[in-house]
Amino acid sequence: MAAALFISPATARTYVSRLLAKLRARDRTQLAVIALRSGVVAPTSGGAAGPGGAR
Questions:
Q1: Secondary structure (3-state) at 46
Q2: Which are the contacts of 24, defined by CB distance < 8 A and separation ≥ 6?
Q3: What's the count of helices (H) and strands (E) in the chain, helices before strands?
Q4: pLDDT at 55 (0 to 100)
Q5: pLDDT digits (tens, 9 = 90+) for 1-55
């Protein structure tokens, strides 16, 4: 994720931690659900989110 955004891995971790706290989410999966439900991201078909994504 960090490479795709041109930020360091440490910065990406900080952003995720801040999102977890602000949205009162318990984990990254819950952040993804919140993003889908709020329309920030659109659902995709196929499984992996992009290059290097786990299936």
A1: coil
A2: none
A3: 3, 0
A4: 44
A5: 788 889 999 999 999 999 999 999 999 999 999 999 999 999 887 666 555 555 4
Locus of tokens 């819950």: 30
The pLDDT value recorded for residue 44 is: 85
Distance CA 27, CA 40 (A): 17
Predicted TM-score (pTM) of this structure: 0.68
Rounded CA gap, 55 and 4, in Å?
Answer: 18
* CA separation for the pair 23, 46 (Å, rounded): 27
Distance, CA of 38 to CA of 52 (rounded, Å): 25
3-state secondary structure of 3: helix
Q: Distance between CA atoms of 13 and 28, rounded to whole angstroms?
A: 11
